[in-house]
Amino acid sequence: MARPDLRYRRVMLKMSGQSLQGNSGFGIDPSTVSYVASQIQRARNLGVELGVVVGGGNILRGEQVSLSGLDRATADYMGMLATMMNALALKAALERIDVETRVQSAISMVQVAEPYIREAAIQHLERGRVVIFGAGTGNPFFTADTAGALRSLEIGAEVLLMAKNRVDGVYTDDPLVKPDARRYDRLTYLEALGRGLGVMDSTALSLCMDNVMPIVVFDLTDPDNLERLLVGEQVGTLITDSA
């Protein structure tokens, strides 16, 4: 049963592939995946219905591979497979701590994941299961950010949560490089687009803007941030239609 003080009851959590690589610089770090799973478990235990989109950049980025001469569409399909590796690793970590989880894939791989079906995803969420959406949108030339925005809208999420590593919101500049960079508490979609702040790719941000999907950018490495955010505390940077 959901806590009465929840601000959001159905959310989409978008994580980069780097969120799962830990300090190794590449691949999947088991301890980091377990940490992420514990954060999702805490959110689920609040009564939140939770969808997850995870990128594949810790294994392969289609756009970068295409620069080496491989055609972009093929490279992007390879990137989709990388997201599925991450999705399956996260599912295994969640089920080890008794969080019932389903993986849905935008490209057919029925031996390891359900096909993406919107109605089935919503039914899983309503039954308390975490749903991990893999393989992006199933189309080349679109990023996992766009998949996060699209799936958020399709499942009726109330907010898109953009999880970052060691960066607690949107800044005027990269705070890891420029310590004097200033953090925004709130931004409008147009401000985020116009200032080129790197919140997410412009297609995803425009999709959220056109459909008034709120975005919160926050630091997932702080173990209390996700829970604080879900119960309505000011965490990270909120991006919406009004500042």
If you had to describe this structure to a student in words, what would you say it looks like?
The chain has 243 residues and is an alpha/beta fold. The chain has a single domain, classed as Carbamate kinase (3-Layer(aba) Sandwich), CATH 3.40.1160. 36% of the residues lie in helices and 19% in strands. It is built from eight helices and eleven strands. The strands form two sheets. The protein has a nine-stranded mixed β-sheet with strand order 4-3-5-2-1-6-10-11-9, sandwiched between helices. A two-stranded antiparallel ribbon has the order 7-8. Helix 1 links the parallel strand 1 and strand 2. Helix 1 crosses helix 3 and helix 5 packs parallel to helix 7. The protein is globular and about 45 Å long. The chain starts with 9 loop residues before the first strand and ends with a strand.
Question: Outline of this structure?
Answer:
By secondary structure, the protein is of the alpha/beta class.
Main features:
243 residues, alpha/beta, Carbamate kinase, nine-stranded mixed sheet, two-stranded antiparallel sheet, 8 helices, 19% strand
